[in-house]
Amino acid sequence: MDDQNKNLILATVLSFIVILGWFVMFPPPETTPAVQETATATSGDTAAPIATVPTGATATTTPNSSEARADALEQAPRIPVETARLTGSISLLGGRVDDLMLKDYRTTIDDDAPIVTLLSPAGTDDAYYALYGWAAGAGIAPEQVPGPNTLWSLVDGETLTVDSPVTMTWDNGAGQVFSRVISIDENYMFNVAQSVENTSDTTVTMAPYGIIARHGIPSDAQNFFILHEGMVAMNNGELLETGWDDIPDLDPINGVPSERIDGVTNGWIGFTGHYFMTNLIPDPAQASRLTVKYLPTTEIFQTEAVLPTQTIAAGTTATVTTQLFAGAKEWDILREYEAKGVYKFIDSIDWGWFFFLTKPIFWVLHHLNLLIGNMGIAIIGLTLLIKALLFPLAYKSYVSMAKMKELQPQMEKLKKDTGEDRQKLQQGMMELYKREKVNPAAGCLPILMQIPIFFSLYKVIFVTLELRHAPFFGPFQDLSAPDPTSIFNFYGLLPWAAPDAGSIMALVFIGILPLLLGVSMFLQQKLNPAPTDPTQQMIFAWMPWVFMFMLGGFASGLVVYWIANNTITFTQQYLIMRSQGYKPDLLGNITSGLKRKNKAAANDTKAPSKGKK
Questions:
Q1: Tens digits of per-residue pLDDT, 535-557?
Q2: Which range of residues forms the domain containing residue 283?
Q3: Which of 47, 98, 200, 522 is most solvent-facing, going by the fewest CB within 10 Å?
């Protein structure tokens, strides 16, 4: 076995093992009184008073049906929310933002599929909402500050729109009048201005807070290691992530599993899912306290942003403004908010450890899609650009492979001359490579370079919203999903459906794209004659078809990339080898492989049976 084939097999087997491991690891209404928990309000004063930060209200387990949702929405008066991109309502009970749907996104690719529901009120499964309030400090009792179940009064505005904010108030009857002005931009950012007017003759202190509560782990959680879902926060430039399963295991604070960060500026905290998220964004100029916690008795996950304690003298008013992001993780929208002051907001997208590859890959793919208007063609264009960047390396590799073919007769002669002396053979081959200026390791470098690119592109296709439901052509209307075609129903010609994606049947009865992948790998392999070693022959013969079935369950966009990559690699290798004087006999290599199989079968048939002489 010459070094060229050793290196090629080594690189290919490594790729196979890594991709196989990857595939195995990542297969494809009643409210009760709020629970009170004591926590220290943040301020520059170390002797800040103890403030009480309430949790979200608990709820009984209720089927998440349209009837249950309608019943939950009728439990309190509401303010409609209506923009070009959002629809829903805000409950005057607690002033909760707890009913929000995204007009631009549907649950499936069907035209009549319901739009995505992001926030839901307590009393439904997957209850998920944001609320605001004040934590009582010195001079004021906990029941004299607005909490999760405070009934507010609407005093200005009828429907929350981009052009019309709404104002709600609550008078505690003890000399303090609280008001809240909520506005919204044209995308997904709410602006919440909380004010308290102290009409009493005493000074009071209190800390404003915001809460995002989620009842239980989301039913649509992907639970893939490649994707982070759960708490996401920014702490002065440091991205913090804690998964749903890990939050209950946090060290307890006051008996509750929690993680708390004090003195955060340029920070935000919230919950992120696959494509959508919510985030509390306090004033970046003020040192806030960010907390994530899990309440075991109610199974509520909660993030909090507590701003510095406010001292409100008699006859004065204090106002604090925070923001709430509730929407889709659109790259360009997050960049826009980042430019407006939400520090490193683009990092709320899970770019992973290979962010230095995933970020530029997505940037190129996004802009190609904007230019071309088709994400599938954009993936092919991205493949062309990647191959162009790697062309100098590929050129050296294929030139080296062509020279290795020219050295084949000399290598065979050297093997005969050295016999069983392996050391002498290796020394002779190294001298031959040095004399002819050939690098035997160059052949495997392009293959090895594809591994991090492949994984980074897989990450981009899986986690970024822009690839969700992105169409290509014909039946390929979602490049983030596996190939929907199947030989099981002869690609729609027979009157039954294809196997469900992710099932064993779907992995066996693969679609058109995986078949093209196998054929492209087979043709690329046949640019070179089959090795004489039987073990190498077996590995090379099975490899395209193993990859075909193994990648059949991957996102179709990734398979499109792999097909394009194989096709371009085939073309490059053929032209470069021709330019070096070596003419690949593609048809001959295919037919010779078939002849060897037929000959082996014939020999097995003619083999004499053992018997008596």
A1: 766 777 788 888 888 887 788 99
A2: 41-349
A3: 47
CA distance 186 to 161: 9
Beta bridge partners, 281, equal 323
H or E element at residue 168: strand 166-171
Which residue matches tokens 């202190």? Answer: 205
- How far separated are the first and last CA of the chain, in Å rounded? 40
Distance of CA 5 to the CA centre of its chain: 37
Helix or strand run (H / E) with residue 599: helix 586-606
Does residue 609 form part of some domain?
Answer: no
Indicate the residue among 323, 349, 375 that finishes a domain: 349
Say whether both 15 and 102 belong to one domain. no
Based on the fold, state whether residues 379 and 318 are members of the same structural domain.
no
pLDDT digits (tens, 9 = 90+) for 391-434: 887 777 777 766 766 677 777 777 777 777 777 777 877 877 77
CA-nearest of 336, 350, 339 to 239 is 350
Distance CA 93, CA 32 (A): 12
* Separation CA 28–CA 503 (nearest Å): 9
Find the CATH number of the domain harbouring 321: 2.70.98.90
- Asked, for residue 354, whether it belongs to a domain, the answer is no
Is 469 in the same domain as 449? yes
